[in-house]
Design brief:
Helix content is 20%, strand content 23%. The chain is α/β, with parallel strands linked by helices and 161 residues long. The protein folds into two domains: 33 residues; 123 residues, Hexapeptide repeat proteins (UDP N-Acetylglucosamine Acyltransferase, domain 1, 3 Solenoid), CATH 2.160.10. Strand 14 and strand 15 form a beta hairpin.
Length: 161
């Protein structure tokens, strides 16, 4: 909620308020989300401690685990942007890092502790350092939860964790 208020203040050019609200979010939740980030509806953060989100673009229903980092890599630019572009219904598990001017498609799952530095197409589960495709999410199969998730055991087996 503090992120949404800080983003509103930023969009209305009340930068002092956006900085204050961002600092309050860090102090209360241990979570830093840039007030310049553009994140769609349905953002879910399971454990906010250690999350850092830079000036990125993200679609609806983004789910984040603890310790996730999303941001720029080293000032490399593609189409004038330095930060990731994330699609709808994306799950980024605990400890994962998504950096650089890359694009994560819709319905992507990032395994725990993966480092994503390249584009990921729609419906792929990625893991490892650097992240590589592990499997494709099945759009025909419906999960009981809001999002279809690959099991941690399946991901760990493929990454040999």
């Amino acid at each position: 909620m503090l992120f949404r208020a800080a983003h509103w203040a930023y969009c209305h050019r009340i930068e002092v308020l956006s900085v204050l609200l961002n600092s309050l979010n860090i102090a209360l939740h241990g979570c830093e989300i840039s007030w310049q980030a553009r994140i769609g509806q349905g953002l879910t953060i399971f454990h906010p401690v250690g999350i850092v989100i830079g000036d990125c673009e993200a679609g609806d229903n983004l789910c984040l685990g603890n310790g996730v980092t999303i941001g720029n890599r080293d000032k490399r630019q593609i189409d004038g942007r330095e930060n990731p572009r994330i699609g709808n219904n994306v799950v980024i598990n605990a400890g994962a890092v998504v950096i650089g001017p890359i694009t994560l498609g819709n319905n992507v799952t990032v395994a725990p502790n993966a480092v994503v530095i390249d584009d990921v197409e729609d419906g792929i589960v990625v893991g490892g350092v650097p992240a590589r495709p592990l499997t494709r999410r099945n759009p025909e199969k419906r999960a009981s939860s809001r999002l279809e998730l690959a099991t941690v055991a399946e991901i760990a087996a493929k990454c040999r964790i």
